[in-house]
Structure formats: structure tokens, C-alpha cells
Design goal:
Two copies of one chain form a homodimer. With about 80 residues, chain A is an alpha+beta fold. The first copy, chain A, has helices at about 15-30, 55-65, and strands at about 1-10, 35-45, 75-80. Chain A has a single domain (about 1-80), classed as 2-Layer Sandwich (Mth169, Chain: A), CATH 3.30.1280. Chain A has a three-stranded antiparallel sheet. Chains A and B meet through strand 1, helix 1, strand 2 and helix 2 of A and strand 1, helix 1, strand 2 and helix 2 of B. Chains A, B: Part of the FGAM synthase complex composed of 1 PurL, 1 PurQ and 2 PurS subunits. Chains A, B: Belongs to the PurS family.
């Protein structure tokens, strides 16, 4: 059994209102020094067997079709 | 300027219906070999200056109060 992480973030050119709302709130709560926040998703995918290149390719396909929206999001697959 | 990542995942003992729904759907879509999926959040936090211990401690405080719910979620802070 192996564990693979898929990080999904909005593409840099896509506005992120959730992240902006958090960043705006911080100074009011007394936290200075944060210039930006972007919010994304993180998936932990447990797979049978080893996380070899074929398995990672399969997870990439899953990420592309089910976990991320490639029009507005970038994703990254890595072994945990 | 530095970039810090905050990964937020449900604690292992907390059920994750979103992740389970994805895992259940995969075989129907032709993807075999995935035994579990857990969905969490990933924040990219941009801070002024260096990501030294004091800055990371500040981000940990932000994560605890604003980004994660410590009752049901674990979080991890790391420099990108």
C-alpha cells in the first residue's frame, strides 16, 4: 500500500475570493505581515501496491478527470 | 517575501464522506487499485520577509484560529 498526494490549486491568473477574504481578515485579527493567501485542495490517495511510474500516471489521470478542473486549476502529484 | 504552505486534513478518526464518495466512484470510471481517498485543504500563505521560526509560529497561530478546526482537523505548516 502506498500513499500519493494530489495538490490542487487555482491557476495563478484565476482570482481566489476565499483566499482574499482570509488575507483581508488577518490584520483585523492582529496578524500582520501576510501579503496573500490562496486556498486549494489536497487529496491523499491510498493505492494498492507500489507508487511506481504507472501508478502515478493512473493517479494523474484521476486528478485530471475527477479531482481538478484543468480549465482553472493546476495539480501536482507526489508520493507521500 | 516567502511562501508557506498549510496542509489541513481531517483527523484520521473523523469520517470523510467527500473522500469516500470519490473512492467509491473510481471503479465505475474504470480506475482500479485505489483503496481510499481523503480530501483536505491546502493554503499557500505569502509572508513579508523570511520564513524564520517566528514567522512560522505566526502562521501556525493563523492556521489554528482561522484555517483549521483543531477539534476535527490536523494541520501542518512548512516552507514552500
Amino acid at each position: 500500500m502506498s500513499r500519493v498526494v494530489v495538490d490542487v490549486m487555482l491557476k495563478p491568473e484565476i482570482l481566489d475570493p476565499q483566499g482574499q477574504a482570509i488575507a483581508r481578515k488577518l490584520p483585523q485579527l492582529g496578524y500582520e505581515g501576510v501579503t496573500a493567501v490562496r486556498q486549494g485542495k489536497r487529496f491523499e490517495v491510498e493505492i494498492d501496491g507500489e507508487a511506481d511510474e504507472a501508478a502515478l500516471e493512473r493517479v494523474r489521470k484521476i486528478a485530471e478527470t475527477l479531482l481538478a478542473n484543468p480549465v482553472i486549476e493546476d495539480f501536482e502529484v507526489r508520493v507521500l
